[in-house]
Design brief:
mainly alpha
Length: 85
């Protein structure tokens, strides 16, 4: 998530100067909701903690965690491009 930490002070200010506060708030809400869903899933609140729960796929190996992180970054990046333009 370093992209968004560095981008907030460097990339987004110059590239998305016309973004409104409501657009930024919408992006923040999307990020918080996605984070909450991932946290609830990791705690076993979505589908339980049984070994047969397919929702726990992102946490089964390091490779799966890296894939999940990449997909999460892509979703947030596309959302930022759409909402902040």
């Amino acid at each position: 998530m370093l992209w968004f930490m560095v981008g907030s002070g460097h990339f987004y200010i110059s590239a998305f100067g016309d973004a409104t506060q409501s657009n930024a708030t919408t992006l923040l809400i999307i990020g918080v909701v996605l984070g909450a869903i991932l946290q609830l899933n990791a705690l076993g609140k979505l589908g339980g903690t049984a070994a047969t729960n397919k929702l726990l796929w992102p946490y089964e190996s390091h490779k799966n965690a890296m894939i999940t992180g990449g997909v999460l970054w892509l979703i947030l990046w596309i959302a930022s491009e759409v909402l902040l333009k």
